[in-house]
């Protein structure tokens, strides 16, 4: 059985998330055999334990990055993790082969509606950096699971929060299906 690592890149999942919190709770319930890495809990000071994080990647076959889109990209904590962990000699370079052949899935939420991302700024514009990282490190990019229109700001509106909860649960189910198809 393939080992799955799910990395939560939300910088304040417990206190400042709606959709990502639901998704992660569902994933823990639906994939109890997976390893879960909550960057906000481990590194609230943004001081990444590089050897520990690199070992988690080495041990995994399927890596899922779960995060919200902040200002058209990943949150700063996830970017810092990537910059510190995926370094020359580990993930790339003549001796950096630790990620070759590992499967990468992006799983993200966006507050804006999908219609806000048209041909002038497609989804790939937000995920391109991560897709390029996969290509550069020899990973196999398996695509993304995305859910739009789940703004944290709508959490106090009962109608919107009900809809957002429903699509967040659906997001987790779609992600689990994608992961299981790779196992």
Entry keywords:
single chain, 183 residues, alpha/beta, 5-stranded parallel sheet, 7 helices, 17% strand
CA distance, first residue to last residue: 7 Å
Secondary-structure class: alpha/beta
The percentage helix is 40-55%
DSSP, total strands: 5
The SSE string, one letter per element, is EHHEHHEHEHEH
Strand order of the largest sheet: 2-1-3-4-5
The helix count comes to 7
Q: How confident overall, as mean pLDDT? A: 94
Pick out the low-confidence regions. Answer: none
For the biggest sheet, the summary is: 5 strands, parallel
Strand content: 15-25%
Oligomeric state of the chains in view: single chain
| Rg, Å, rounded | 16 Å
**Structural shape:** globular
Lay out the secondary structure:
Layout: E1 4-8, H1 13-16, H2 19-30, E2 35-38, H3 39-42, H4 50-59, E3 62-68, H5 76-85, E4 103-109, H6 123-137, E5 140-147, H7 158-181
Parallel strand pairs: 1-2, 1-3, 3-4, 4-5
Helix pairs in contact: 2-7
Molecular structure report:
It is a single chain. About 45% of the residues lie in helices and about 15% in strands. The protein is built from seven helices and five strands, in the order βααβααβαβαβα. It has helices spanning about 15, 20-30, 40, 50-60, 75-85, 125-135, 160-180, and strands at about 5-10, 35-40, 60-70, 105-110, 140-145. A five-stranded parallel β-sheet has the order 2-1-3-4-5, sandwiched between helices.
């Amino acid at each position: 059985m393939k080992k799955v690592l799910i990395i939560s890149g939300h910088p304040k999942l417990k206190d400042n998330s709606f959709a990502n919190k639901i998704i992660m709770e569902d994933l823990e319930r639906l994939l109890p055999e997976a390893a879960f890495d909550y960057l906000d809990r481990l590194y609230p000071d943004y001081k990444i334990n590089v050897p520990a994080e690199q070992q988690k990647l080495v041990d995994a076959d399927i890596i899922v990055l779960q995060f919200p889109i902040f200002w058209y990209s990943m949150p700063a904590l996830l970017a810092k993790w990537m910059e510190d962990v995926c370094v020359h000699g580990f993930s790339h370079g003549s001796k950096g082969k630790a990620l070759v052949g590992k499967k990468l899935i992006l799983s993200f939420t966006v507050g804006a509606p999908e219609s806000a991302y048209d041909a002038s700024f497609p989804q790939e514009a937000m995920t391109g950096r991560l897709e390029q990282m996969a290509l550069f490190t020899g990973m196999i990019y398996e695509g993304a699971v995305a859910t739009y229109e789940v703004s944290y700001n709508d959490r106090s509106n009962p109608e919107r929060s009900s809809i957002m909860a429903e699509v967040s649960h659906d997001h987790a189910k779609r992600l689990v299906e994608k992961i299981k198809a790779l196992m």
